[in-house]
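User: I'm putting together a teaching handout on how sequence relates to shape, and I'd like one worked example. Could you take 4-oxalocrotonate tautomerase from Pararobbsia silviterrae, show the sequence you're using, and then write out its predicted structure as tokens right after it?

Assistant: Happy to. First the sequence, then the structure tokens directly below it.
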Amino acid sequence: MPGIQLTVSGDGDTGRSEHFAAQLSALTCSVLDKKLANTMVMVRYVPHAHWFIGGQSLAALGQNSFRLEVTLTEETNTKDQKASYHRQAFELLSSLIGNVHPHSNVHIVDCAATSYGYGGLTQEYRYQHGKTQHARIGSESAR
């Protein structure tokens, strides 16, 4: 159940946001083995004059930037999957946005299963109920 928040410098429009959401959802589901139906994406835009790196605005630097935050349930992805995602997400967004400052970044946030969830249920609850359901199905088929 990834929660994806993309902040991009500049002005946005619906078409651009939809394109970012589709591309990031596909990448996240592919590399991090997540379900599209459970993937949430929010896209925000910050004017170049209001985004600063090293004390200078992006307007003054003449560059673009992004910050991608992906929230995951901890222990559901390996270090290798995360490293691959960092690399591929940076490459994808750099190509979509263009002229990005090298300090543009990807941040994966691992949340404890007892603290993270959706629909009023934690991921830990879903995990425990999934185990119970699988155990019940297994014992019924053994009869």
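A couple of points you could highlight for students: The first helix runs from residue 14 to 31. The domain at 3-111 is CATH 3.30.429.10 (Macrophage Migration Inhibitory Factor).
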